[in-house]
Amino acid sequence: MREYIKVARVEEVPKNGMKLVKVDNLEILLINIDGDFYAYDNWCPHMGYPLFFGKLEGYVLTCGFHYAKFDVKNGRPLNKTTEKPLRKIKLKKIGSDLVIQLTF
Ligand code: FES
Fold first, then answer.
1. Staple partner for 45: which of 5, 13, 66, 84, CB 3.0–4.6 Å?
2. Could you tell me if 51 and 40 are in contact, meaning their C-beta atoms sit under 8 angstroms apart?
């Protein structure tokens, strides 16, 4: 099991917005919804295009390529474009730091 890795400070992820960070060879999408933070693998489970170019509306993230929609709270798909969920990454807020734990 890997230790937690600091990926950003809280203020670096815009409220109701996203920030892309790189850790090792992974691109990780950080999402801030009203101060609740989430982390997902940046690659869409539909065909692997980057989710960072998608659109965030409330808790719904829409991929910009074929419009798969996902629930940011749990990563589950919300339409028929794909049945695969987003790949969630363990994220913790420690003070004003956001840290992740890679388990895959
Ligand atoms: S790659 Fe995201 S919807 Fe197709």
1. 84
2. yes
